[in-house]
């Protein structure tokens, strides 16, 4: 008796609910299939190679440093019309030596990118900083 009542009582509401559930399932499934594979619609990726690395240090600091490597590679994402106008000299890539000046060791690389873009990756992520004797003229001075 219970099974028979399940199919007879309110059968039109149950059929309508089943029909609506099928429509919702189809809408969600087609929305997932139409979603872009990576990033947002209208966004592109651009790579910048051999971007020079700057050193952030106090002006009064006479210490010289050697960086290894002296250039980095960046990958930016953004609107294609914005990315095509970005120049390598607009990218601010630096190592901060103001906080805890190193003798020798690695430091993280900091990157500021133009508005309308976002940083995807920077390679390498760290740079080797080595303090040079004051008589060596090949280092970077700030």
Describe the structure.
- With 142 residues, the protein is of the alpha+beta class.
- It has helices at 2-8, 11-34, 80-83; strands spanning 44-52, 54-56, 64-68, 71-78, 92-96, 104-108, 110-112, 117-123, 126-132, 140-141.
Question: What is the strand and helix layout of this fold?
Answer:
Blueprint: H1 2-8, H2 11-34, E1 44-52, E2 54-56, E3 64-68, E4 71-78, H3 80-83, E5 92-96, E6 104-108, E7 110-112, E8 117-123, E9 126-132, E10 140-141
Parallel strand pairs: 2-5
Antiparallel strand pairs: 1-4, 3-9, 3-10, 4-8, 5-7, 6-9
Structural domain count: 2
Strand order of the largest sheet: 6-9-3-10
Helix-strand string? HHEEEEHEEEEEE
Fill in the CATH topology of the largest domain: RNA Polymerase Alpha Subunit, Chain A, domain 2
Radius of gyration: 29 Å
Instruction: Give the biggest beta sheet.
Output: 4 strands, antiparallel
Helical residue percent?
A: 10-25%
Summarize the structure.
With 142 residues, the chain is of the alpha+beta class.
Annotation keywords:
142 residues, alpha+beta, RNA Polymerase Alpha Subunit, Chain A, domain 2, four-stranded antiparallel β-sheet, three-stranded antiparallel β-sheet, 3 helices, 10 strands
């Amino acid at each position: 008796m219970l099974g028979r009542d399940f199919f007879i009582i309110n059968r039109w509401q149950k059929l309508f609910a089943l029909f609506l559930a099928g429509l919702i399932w189809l809408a969600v499934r087609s929305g997932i299939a139409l979603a872009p594979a990576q990033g947002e619609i209208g966004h592109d990726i651009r790579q910048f190679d051999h971007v020079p690395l700057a050193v952030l240090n106090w002006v009064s600091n006479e210490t010289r440093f050697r960086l290894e490597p002296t250039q980095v590679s960046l990958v930016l994402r953004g609107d294609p019309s914005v990315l095509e106008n970005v120049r390598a000299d607009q990218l601010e890539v630096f190592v901060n030596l103001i906080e805890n000046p190193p003798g020798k060791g690695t430091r993280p690389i900091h990157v500021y990118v133009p508005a309308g873009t976002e940083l995807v990756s920077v390679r390498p992520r760290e740079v080797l900083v080595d303090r040079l004797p004051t008589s060596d003229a090949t280092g970077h001075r700030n």
